[in-house]
Amino acid sequence: MEDSSQSSPTLRLFNALLVTMLAILTGLFSVRLRLIRPEDGDLKGMGFFIGSIAFPLLIFNTVATANIGAIDLGVIGACSLGKICVGTMTWLLAFVAYLPKRSRGQRILTAAVFAFFSVASDDFAIGFPVIDALYTEEDMGIYITGNALVGSFLFVPLTIVGLAIGGALKGTEGQGSNYCRIFGTIMYDLATNPVLVMTCVGLLLKVILSNTNGDMEKLPHPFSDLIDVFTAPFGMSALFLTGTSLRSPRVAVWAVGLVLMKVVVCAYLSYAFATILIPEDREGAQKLRDFTFFYGVIPTGSPPIVFAAQFDPASAELIATAVLFGLILAGPVMFVTAYSLPEEDLAANMILRQVQATTDASSILCGLIFCFFLLLLGRGWCFQCPAKMLVAFYGLVLMVYAVVSLMLNPILSPYSCELFKEMELRTPLVLTFGWLQNTACIMVLLLESMLVYGPATSKKNTCLGLLMAFACFVFALMPSLLATPNTINEICGIAAVQTVSLTLTFAWSCLQLLIASVLAIDGLCRARRSKEMMEVPIGHGQYGHQNGQSGHVNLQNLHTVSASGSSGTESDSESGAEENKWQLLVPQGTILAISILFIVKSMMQVINAGQVLFHGNKNRGGFAAMLLLESVLEHAQPWVLVIALFFDPNFTSVLLKLLHQVCPICCRPKIKLTCDLVRNPHVLDSVPPAASDSDGVLN
């Protein structure tokens, strides 16, 4: 039998992730099959043992026996700074945008829970196994210990402070703020927190042992035996409890956003800080930088669920869903990183080419599906609406972009890259590639601005839609002629950096990210100021709020509008409303999904372009994984567009009706498909006010 230490990193990682997922699924199925009933208190004892005994003792043992002197502080600093940035952004977004009609104390509680989720890596249940699987020759586990130590001394106390302040303010609503009481609550919670207490005790013991016997790998007997007995069940039990905490997942903006902040944004920012704090001439610098990216990808465990259940029960289900999504997303990202660990640039370039070619081929197929939708719907798409017109052009541009990208890939056409190297961006195929790439980016920015400032109802203005699409094509010419398209140097294996064009690429990516972020922040502020704000999951198809400035209308639960506006049976009226909301409303759920993708992708492009421009990073290790993820997000945009449309029930109801005309057994039509409601917006007067969604998802 092959020794596991001699197997490939990907195989070892697969085994570690497989065991982890099986443990989580065991807990999930135990609850779903009603073998365990958490509501009856079946898990209270296990939860107390894991949270108050096993985990604090594990922290104590790890801190007391860790060889802290061998830790490179640059690694810890990079991971910590990445977490601080992500946690701060998450806290601010949650406090400002998540259900802002609630009291200030309740919003502080939710913001603290969300921020803790974005920084709470599951170091012991997932971190140690996967790091040990990837790094068998080096003791990289000490960096897990170092980060756990920072979490115990920095992030856990900050979370406790936030929860104490929020709870005190919530308890004194209408009575004025009692700052002495708040301070006393904070100090009591800090003094009685078992994790923080055991961390301090472990550090104290570490100092005592270092002054007497030096660093010890294990505590003296019988203390080490006692700790081993108490902490042995932690790994399985913690993962089992995570599985029992999961609920039925719902695709919602906040759940997806929290996962992206933890798994993607935290990893990229940590690597960016690592390039600054870990000099290139330091021994093993590349391996240490790779670790910061991999550590940032480690998903969140069950502690945020515990905090949410105790301090903010309304968000517990959302946090549990985000934990599940994080586990699903982190697995593929970890595999990408493991495949990128080889140091050879040639191997990494080949992997990037293969991944991009596969993504382009699947995106072409997805683009054909989108074209089929357009042909099937015809006038039912309602091209009179400028937003729908721009979405249609966006999908078509993405399909052609995938075709050109596949033609440029050296796997299919090696001569394209050779010509690109000789002519330096002046080949027709590369110029077309960059033009389509930038056209799609400008279209997304324009759609995001329509989401923020435009009305929620469709307007009949075909000329405006055509004019906006034409303007996107024209404005995309300038960056296409001057800047290098993203990842093309790595695809073609060009080692030399063209400083001028790459500088323009970096500046153009920064400008895109700035515009998209400003629009997002302004949209959040406008939503918060709105008195009739509502929150719904992605794709529910009802958005916006009636106010004097933006002109948005509440359209949720549109149950009484019929296609002609005339009276009829209640069931026919409801069916007519469901099938005509696509004509009535701007597809804001779809626009929101591609806007979130665009912001994350732009952040990746800024960091990656900056790494190449300022640090000369090569396509290897963690940076190769970063390029792979950017390439997948860049070239998988057609998939995001089609999936977002499928999550919009307004679109799917129209699609099913038209499929009936092709295949009568698909569904039974209730009304005639028409765009008359767009031409008669006065029927919206009968629309009832919207109700808030329990998810608290902001659109």
UniProtKB/TrEMBL annotation:
Question: What's the name of the protein?
Answer: GTPase Der
Entry keywords, A to Z: Membrane, Transmembrane, Transmembrane helix, Transport
| Keyword DNA damage among record annotations | no
Would I find Transmembrane among this entry's keywords?
yes
Q: Which residues cross the membrane?
A: 12-35, 47-69, 75-99, 111-131, 143-169, 190-209, 229-246, 253-273, 293-311, 318-341, 361-378, 390-412, 432-452, 464-482, 502-525
